[in-house]
Amino acid sequence: MKKAVIITAGAGLLIAAYLILWPEPRIRNTDPPEGAIICFGDSLTFGTGSSPGMDYPSQLSRLIGMPVLNAGRPGDMTGDALERLERDVLSLSPGIVFITLGGNDLKNRGSRREAFDNLKKIIERIQDKGALVVVGGIDVPLFDRGFPGEYVRVCRETGAVLIPDIYDGILGRGELMSDPIHPNDRGYQIIAERFYAAVKPYL
């Protein structure tokens, strides 16, 4: 346990140094074309644990005042998402795409390198269509396996907008969770509000 704490603290210091020393990234496609607004991801996007109409894409749609498509599929790892990217996102002429991916790679102990190689490919292929990409990162203390730093790296390299931890203040709080992994309606509301705040400057 003590070793895990030390490793986590060391990773946190490395991320902090990276954020301080690396220049602010240039966001790509800040003036996105008119096109579909799509939420792409796993069960967190799908809305597992929410009431009808209370998943985060539905709540985000109401905040933006425009239709938002839910392209979430429970259980998807980044490799699964990459395989369906053309059908579920690129073929729809996206203008803005919100991504929540990597949680299942983390939970299932998939390769970190492969997960973020896949995520980078997903982001860049979407951006090549002219769309703005907003990524919701995931940070699970003591079990993060270096994922938080990889979200920072990939989003800096690609120019995607990053919310470093979409679960911040939600995970582990019973009043905001429907089960140990998925938020409830109120938890999804917070996620929708975070995505809205991140994308608002570009609307």
Q: What is the share of helical residues?
A: 40-55%
What about the largest sheet? 5 strands, parallel
User: Structural class of the secondary elements?
Assistant: alpha/beta
| Shape-level CATH architecture | 3-Layer(aba) Sandwich
Mean pLDDT across residues: 90
According to DSSP, the number of beta strands is 5
- The strand line-up of the biggest sheet is 2-1-3-4-5
- Which blocks of ≥5 consecutive residues have pLDDT under 50? 1-11, 16-21
Strand content: 5-15%
Total DSSP helices: 8
How many individual domains? Answer: 1
Description:
This protein is globular. Helix 4 packs parallel to helix 6 (112-127) and helix 6 runs parallel beside helix 7. It is of the alpha/beta class. The protein has helices at 2-21, 43-46, 56-64, 78-88, 103-107, 112-127, 147-158, 185-199; strands at residues 36-41, 69-72, 94-100, 132-136, 161-163. It has a single domain, classed as SGNH hydrolase (Rossmann fold), CATH 3.40.50.1110. It has 8 helices and 5 strands. It is 45% helix and 12% strand. Strand 4 (132-136), helix 7 and strand 5 form a beta-alpha-beta unit. 36% of the residues are buried. The chain has a 5-stranded parallel β-sheet, with helices on both faces.
